[in-house]
């Protein structure tokens, strides 16, 4: 029964991680095109946290590659053992892949959190923040140096009236908040599932040892 449970868990967690990895890549790609426009990417006026692409290499490629490779190796292992069904992660070599997925998801979570906290890069009125006169490209919520970090973040995330300070790209603050929040949610779920996959692999390995005895 335990072996069946382990195998079922592995077959459920793997596809879920692949779906989440795809969603992570899509969310990060959208971050590079605020408002659906490629103009700002061409001009280099994209948030450095979006350009770091944590959702692509961290929550996307690392997670999807780890799951796909682990599933492939598990399938080969099962065939070598002459089993009819795909076994859970019994091979010792597959233990590193869920860990890779966990690290990728964790990196995405951290960088997305920083991106959400610091706010977007936008064209804003610098005089409103006491950083000179006129308009310029920058991080208006990060540049508010007179405020404490927690207070600045709280004001920026909960006071939507401050979002109007960004003149270009249109709606960039809401765009960043929604997509970075989505990346945080996706990467947090990936970490939970990857951890479950690691525990699942350990349990499957122990079951294999017990059956061998």
UniProtKB/TrEMBL annotation:
UniProt membrane topology term: Multi-pass membrane protein
Cellular compartments annotated: Membrane
Highest taxon, organism lineage: Eukaryota
Keywords, in A-Z order: Membrane, Transmembrane, Transmembrane helix
Principal subcellular localisation of the protein: membrane
Gene Ontology CC terms: membrane
Pfam families (alphabetical): L6_membrane
Record field: transmembrane: 12-35, 55-77, 173-193
PANTHER family given in the database record: TRANSMEMBRANE 4 L6 FAMILY MEMBER 1-RELATED, TRANSMEMBRANE 4 L6 FAMILY MEMBER 19
Family: Belongs to the L6 tetraspanin family.
Name the record gives this protein: Transmembrane 4 L6 family member 1
